[in-house]
TrEMBL record:
Sequence ranges assigned to domain ABC transmembrane type-1 in this UniProt record: 78-268
The name this protein goes by in its record: ABC transporter, permease protein
GO CC annotations, alphabetized: plasma membrane
Natural source organism: Hungatella hathewayi DSM 13479
PANTHER family referenced in this protein's UniProt entry, alphabetically: ABC TRANSPORTER PERMEASE PROTEIN MG189-RELATED, ABC TRANSPORTER PERMEASE PROTEIN MG189-RELATED-RELATED
Lineage, highest ranks first: Bacteria, Bacillati, Bacillota, Clostridia, Lachnospirales
Family: Belongs to the binding-protein-dependent transport system permease family.
InterPro entries, A to Z: MetI-like, MetI-like_sf
Length: 282
């Protein structure tokens, strides 16, 4: 009996060690590219071309960030990214929350079919529908406008699915009690559904923020000048040096692009953990 217990404990220890080794390998694989980007952003142009590569530069050249910022209208690009990203987030809240509530709690004819159609849109890649949308916006004179950058992302099928799953886990008794107190459907959404689904909503907003802030394809397609171009386009337009890419300046631009995402993630990480832990969403 003792031998079996010893074997079981040894097996458990070995599996735990293997698990932590796997986590460590994944952590290194995810962190090294980011650390290398930051390291390259403070190197001299010569150190970026050395072979073998230098991980820690001899001197830290923080002026690369100034060069990246001054290489174009970066402040203008930054403000465009902020306007487009936050406008998309606000519109998604206005449209996704009522739609998710309707699919989760309301009974109406064709509900299952409509939800199925909504889920089917997740299988359609954006690259497949960009041409019809481009033609529509072009005929409406909305190319190089905030409307063409925001309206296609004013709702989200994935967001509707996430919030629907969260709303379905809220006890029906709470809603019935609110209706007995003469609460309207909008009051139920505002005072019961949204507060109880806050972790899921924060997670959805973070995912929307990342996708819109990092988006390169859509701003490239819908713009022909710098009027509403975003920071991701600005980074790709960084000046070249002697016919080749200035990797230190380019990496500095990428750090500027990624930094807001890291700040938002750090601020929202508790809500994200709660969303995936307590609501059971995978």
């Amino acid at each position: 009996m003792k031998r079996l217990q010893l074997t079981y404990r040894l097996k458990k220890i070995v599996l735990t060690v293997i698990q932590y080794i796997g986590f460590a390998i994944l952590l290194v694989l995810f962190i090294i590219p980011f650390v290398w980007m930051v390291s390259t952003s403070v190197k001299s142009i010569g150190e970026t071309l050395t072979n073998p590569p230098i991980f820690i530069p001899s001197d830290f050249h923080f002026e690369n960030y100034i060069k990246a910022w001054k290489s174009g209208p970066f402040l203008h690009f930054f403000l465009n990214s902020a306007i487009i990203t936050f406008s998309s987030m606000i519109l998604q809240l206005l449209f996704v929350v009522p739609a998710a509530y309707a699919f989760a709690r309301c009974k109406f004819r064709g509900k299952t079919i409509l939800f199925g159609i909504t889920m089917m849109t997740l299988m359609i890649p954006g690259q497949l529908i960009f041409m019809p949308l481009f033609l529509i916006f072009s005929r409406m004179g909305l190319i190089n406008s905030y409307a063409s950058m925001i309206l296609p992302f004013s709702t989200s099928a994935f967001g509707i699915f996430m919030l629907r799953q969260s709303f379905m886990q809220i006890p029906e008794e709470l809603l019935e009690a609110a209706r007995l107190d003469q609460a309207s459907e909008w009051q139920i959404i505002r005072h019961i559904m949204v507060p109880m689904a806050r972790p899921t909503i924060v997670t959805l907003m973070l995912l929307t923020f990342i996708s819109r802030w990092n988006d390169y394809f859509w701003p490239l397609v819908m713009t022909t000048n710098d009027k509403v171009r975003t920071l991701s386009i600005g980074v790709s337009m960084l000046k070249n040096t002697e016919g080749g890419a200035s990797w230190n300046v380019l990496m500095a631009g990428n750090v500027i692009l990624v930094l807001p995402i890291l700040i938002v993630f750090v601020c929202a990480q508790r809500q994200i953990i709660r969303a995936f832990t307590y609501t059971g969403e995978k």
